[in-house]
Amino acid sequence: MITPHIIVLGNEKGGTGKSTVAMHIIVHLLRDGKKVASLDLDGRQGSLTKYIKNRNLYAEKHGISLPMPEHLAVAASSSFTEKSIAEDLKVLDSTIKDLKKIADFIVIDTPGSDNYLMRAGHNYADTLITPINESLIDLDVLGSVDPETQKISSPSQYSQTVWEARKFRAAHRLKPLRWFVVRNRLSHVDTRNRHVMDKVINDLAKRVSFTALPGLGERVIYRELFLKGLTMLDLRKAGVDMNIGLSHIAARREIKQLMDTIEE
Ligand SMILES: Nc1ncnc2c1ncn2[C@@H]1O[C@H](COP(=O)(O)OP(=O)(O)O)[C@@H](O)[C@H]1O
Ligand SMILES: [Mg+2]
């Protein structure tokens, strides 16, 4: 039996595209014929869970079948006692064990703030994907960058979290974690910003050991897709009635490029 591959979406900031990218990865894998399980650890936002609910509703309303992951959520309990934390971590572990029995891929979406479930989620990552918005301000999640000189002074708290996950995996003789930082909301016009981002990201990549990848372009359609539970990869498929011109072709290429790198 092949061990399932676990892909974790993580970034200590909210609104960087974790849930959007998670859903696109899930649908890409499903449409590629893979058995996919998904797990939402973001109890507060629950965006991935809502995204999948919206997808079910869309399929029902239009009388069509859309490929669906086996989806579960694990939320942090409200009392932060040592006992409840240990209990939550046990639930997380047994949930992942169960999902491993039925899936080729498990995609885990994590909250955009530091908590024990978020940190524990990172320990399971064979592949960690960190989407970041295309701006220097968002890079501070990886390391402190001087805005004048663009020099990196120190790694961030989040880079430390990833480092801890790497140590955990080494101690438990798990495959080394592969970390990809994916630039989201790429703009086609702001080339100056892009050059500065290229330089700083490449410096950070060496400093905290990740591979930088171009990700998704900036497209207002992503919000509407969320509400319908659809992804760029569902457009032009049977029963999906949403026409957005040719933009889905570029988007599909972006997702495919990302997945080709990850699946290598
Ligand atoms: N490439 C993009 N272009 C335009 N809007 C995007 C893009 N990626 C994400 N969004 C939108 O930004 C918001 C936050 O994205 P989300 O995936 O929920 O982030 P996170 O899970 O990191 O909090 C959502 O409304 C989503 O539709
Ligand atoms: Mg989210």
Summarize the structure.
This protein is of the alpha/beta class and 264 residues long. It is 44% helix and 17% strand.
Describe this structure in words.
With 264 residues, this protein is of the alpha/beta class. The protein has one domain (5-263): 3-Layer(aba) Sandwich (Rossmann fold), CATH 3.40.50. The protein has eight helices and nine strands. It has helices at residues 18-31, 47-62, 82-102, 116-123, 157-171, 191-208, 221-228, 247-263, and strands at residues 5-9, 36-40, 70-73, 105-109, 127-133, 143-145, 152-155, 178-184, 211-214. The strands form two sheets. The chain has a seven-stranded parallel β-sheet, with helices on both faces. It has a two-stranded antiparallel sheet with strand order 6-7. Strand 2 (36-40), helix 2 and strand 3 (70-73) form a beta-alpha-beta unit. Helix 1 crosses helix 2, helix 3 packs parallel to helix 4 (116-123) and helix 4 packs across helix 5. The chain binds adenosine-5'-diphosphate and magnesium ion. Adenosine-5'-diphosphate (ADP) is lined by residues 14-20, 47, 112, 184-185, 216, 218-219, 222-223, 226.
